[in-house]
């Protein structure tokens, strides 16, 4: 089992879904393609972690719907109590920023603007996701609570990214002094 497998199991604890629906649902949290998801679903079904059924559709090809089994829930609960690994950062933008010392000011501004626009698009994306979460069911312990707090995390990360882009732009414009914008935060 890999991390993506556990994520798919987690999504299936909420509702029965097709492989395509699972791909869409996991995208805000984990980048995965069809070519990764379908073999995992097949393996988890063979391992009796999932059950499936075919749904006939008149206007489209039939689709296979997956549901998590009790064995799948047990496997997922076992994973939930293991330590979480450190996050992995792989961002081409960060590598380009390392090279700004040799870049022309115009190229630096261009990549900052591109990233700021990306963050703005992420905000729209997460706001759309947030609008689809039933607000009357939001409470700690509800199935939607995890989605809600992760959407909020995505919004906060994007907003912080925009603030960072604005700060760097102010540095380039000479409108801000080069100083630490984040004073040390003591642990609570």
Automatic annotation (TrEMBL):
Domain Transcription regulator PadR C-terminal as annotated: residue spans: 89-173
Record's signal peptide: none
Pfam families: PadR (PF03551), Vir_act_alpha_C (PF10400)
Domain Transcription regulator PadR N-terminal span(s) in chain numbering: 8-76
Name of the featured protein: PadR family transcriptional regulator
Organism field: Paenibacillus taichungensis
């Amino acid at each position: 089992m890999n991390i993506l497998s556990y994520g798919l199991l987690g999504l299936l604890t909420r509702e029965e879904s097709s492989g395509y629906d699972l791909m869409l649902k996991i995208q805000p949290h984990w980048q995965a393609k069809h070519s990764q998801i379908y073999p995992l679903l097949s393996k988890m079904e063979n391992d009796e972690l999932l059950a499936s059924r075919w749904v006939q559709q008149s206007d489209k090809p039939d689709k296979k719907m997956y549901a998590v089994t009790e064995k799948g829930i047990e496997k997922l609960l076992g994973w939930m109590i293991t330590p979480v690994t450190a996050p992995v950062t792989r961002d081409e933008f960060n590598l380009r920023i390392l090279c700004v010392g040799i870049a022309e000011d115009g190229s630096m501004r261009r990549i900052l603007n591109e990233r700021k626009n990306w963050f703005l698009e992420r905000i729209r994306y997460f706001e759309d996701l947030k609008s689809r979460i039933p607000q009357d069911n939001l409470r700690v312990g509800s199935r939607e609570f995890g989605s809600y707090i992760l959407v909020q995390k995505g919004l906060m990360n994007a907003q912080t990214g925009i603030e960072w882009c604005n700060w760097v732009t102010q540095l380039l414009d000479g409108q801000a002094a080069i100083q630490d914008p984040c004073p040390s935060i003591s642990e609570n």
